[in-house]
């Protein structure tokens, strides 16, 4: 069951030009959700309208959309790791299953694709590796041609860092490198990417950067000028800023996501730079249940704390900022709801909720241009 509630919008002086996007919602399917849901997003108001749903897609916990919006790829986060491909009709917001392949690792939790739609990169959390799968012209996925992982040493948290746990596989802005985070080893790995080869990923020197032991690196994003990389650490509830240059990372700053004296449960999750490049947002689960906002120094890339916003739902695992930069949408995994918050593009602060939709166990939000 999907329901929508319109809440009075926050008044703002200038409205953006009317634009529409498709919002794809990935979810865990052990509750109310049965697959991937698609909404039409109206960037003028923040309103969402239900378009379609494709069922019988097991645990599509992370999605990616091809650069031409013709295809959608979704991990199937199960012990038998798989990744599925779909054709996508942006006019109707409709998905059609094409095929799926094994990811050669358990619990895949992240998927990305290059702009040419030649290669798919999947992070296997319990498998502790990333897999590279070629793509065919019809959007279908071919069997994996390469896997890469780390054999240790592992971090100090014996319960969480007993082995490698890979969370992301992210292409650099110029797509010459692929970065992958390993919560188990406290490393951010760097590999060179050359499409069209049997082994598209190769080593670089240095092959990784490390974070504070027990930090648990998770997700990352680049600055708008591509000179800095921001890494959120799940267990440490912190963000580290690196200077970035042609595959090389130099750590410069680490900031906490926690209030002074905070002792409750945490679990930092997602991180995004605003479309105008002025602000960075990072979510924290557990008892914190909030999103922190930082301003970005446009010369140095360093972060300054701006605000911390408590989230109305539970467990803000994933969030997304709409392409106009006017709204921030939060997927609340444990309260079956996606909230739309108005953003102040001048201060970076999250203002009031303008809309919400109910979706079972939402854990991934992706935008695609509507037609």
Automatic annotation (TrEMBL):
This protein's record includes keyword Cytoplasm: no
Source organism of this protein record: Mucilaginibacter psychrotolerans
Keyword annotations from UniProtKB, A to Z: Carbohydrate metabolism, Glucose metabolism
Domain of life: Bacteria
GO cellular component: cytosol
GO terms assigned for molecular function: 6-phosphogluconolactonase activity
Family under the similarity heading: Belongs to the cycloisomerase 2 family.
Coiled-coil region: none
Designated name of the protein: Lactonase family protein
GO biological process: one example: glucose metabolic process
InterPro entries for the chain: Cycloisomerase_2 (IPR050282), Haem_d1_sf (IPR011048), Lactonase_7-beta_prop (IPR019405), WD40/YVTN_repeat-like_dom_sf (IPR015943)
